[in-house]
Amino acid sequence: PSRGDNIADLMRHNLGPREWDILRRAGEAAAGLGYRVFAAGGVVRDILLGAGNLDVDLVVEGDGIALAEALAASGEGRVRAHRHFGTAEVLFPDGFKVDVATARVEYYEFPAALPRVESSSIRQDLYRRDFTINAMAVDLNGEHFGDLVDYFGGREDLQQGLIRVLYNLSFIEDPTRLLRAVRFEQRYRFTIEPQTLKLVQEAVQREVLQRVSVERLWDELKHILMEPAAGKMLDRLDRLGIWPFVFPGVTYWEVQPVLSGLDRAIKMLQDWDFLDGVEGWLCYFIAALHWSTPEAAAELCRRYHLNKRQTEKVLNSVQNWRQVLSTVWKQNNHRPNSELAHLILALPREAYPLLLSLLEEEWMRHRFHQLLLLIRESRPTVDGKYIKSLGYRPGPVFRRALDAVWQARLDGQVKNSDEEKAFIQEFLRRHQGEI
Ligand code: ATP
Question: How much distance in Å is there from the Cα of 265 to the middle of ligand 1?
Fold first, then answer.
């Protein structure tokens, strides 16, 4: 094991002041209790990479819950303890969260004359992890603060850009690691190390993913779909033969052209500010299913327990994208903007990346952008309050009047709020009878 590398300077550089402060205080709290405490897992990897990671995971040789309580007391935090597992979360008033786990001390009975030995419990804890790059820790104790704990060559693999399991049965023991291998490989543009790749292929051939609960599978799949490079990850899943286990019944090559452009499409729409508040993973989910029948799409929504609202968005998109595409981008199309806007707005925004990715020509993407801008800028300035101020009582006609003025704006018939008001008064006069 390489003990001795001290990365305290890197920690000070690459962690925020808040994380740094928490780690110092965790070390002090442990000293007070006579425990040893480490930061472990992804946070260590990301300190070494210089990539921001705000998830602080602590591992304690000692009583993790007692340490969580001491840490909480040092900063007005609250503790949520799971006594059964010896784990706890510390929640600070500023929303900062720290996960604390207990590294159990394990005793091994050796045969013959050898004594009972206590194996280092941080080592045991790290050995249970997925890949070498995720199996490092940093000592937080007193004079050892910042000492890197790297039993399995994680730092070396990080430098070489390699994803490597710690033991041969790793994927058999936990098949969700197959998805994690792809996620880390593509996220950091690393490579799955040759021996590990062989184990991946063996595990896929043995169909180990069939044994994983749908909940755990979805949890890892969703992690992939939330990554900015999800499209590349899905492609890798296909090349490794994993795709059919996560999207059963969906033929990858039918959706590949769209998925391969989706990372970029999402990035563009985000840059144009049209995806605020949108669940990114749902954009990928919709794109992956756009070629499926509504029945098959509904089946996958059920399989992964999407809620009603999410399922509706998927089905709406799957059923309607073709019509939107063919109407809006027809050559020599002379339909009014309001009609095109109406079609686009009937789709959930989660389907916009799919549309954009399907548009092959630059002029088509340009037109989509122009329409989205027009829709945004045409939002009328008058609202229901104005209609009320004219003495009308709220009713269905309010909605219709506001829709009508909005259409008129989209089609350029009214241009400012005075014209909007005149338009509304005229509209209400014409619909006297219905009010
Ligand atoms: P991210 O940057 O995506 O949050 P992370 O490494 O923090 O990456 P988590 O899923 O939060 O990912 O897991 C935290 C740590 O727990 C990992 O770094 C790894 O050490 C360990 N871990 C998580 N899932 C597994 C697993 N299935 N098998 C083994 N170890 C795991």
Answer: 28
Over residues 266-284, the pLDDT tens digits come to 999 999 999 988 999 999 9
Please tell me whether residues 274 and 184 are part of one structural domain.
no
What is the whole-number distance in angstroms between the Cα of residue 403 and the centre of ligand 1? 49
Residue 322: both structure tokens together: 């073709």
Look up the ipTM and state it: 0.97
Residues 282 and 402 in one domain: no
Among 227, 246, 265, the domain boundary falls at: 246
H or E stretch including 209?
none
Question: Could you tell me the two tokens for 157?
Answer: 């693999």
Alpha-carbon span 233 to 238, nearest angstrom: 9
Residue 107 near residue 116 (C-beta atoms within 8 A): yes
Domains: count for the chain: 4
Ligand 1 pocket, mutate which of 53, 57, 130, 223 (most atoms under 8 A from CB): 130
Query: What CATH number is associated with residue 47?
Result: 3.30.460.10
pTM exceeds 0.80 for this model = yes
Claim to verify: residue 268 and residue 363 sit in the same structural domain:
yes
**Two tokens at 222?**
């969703």
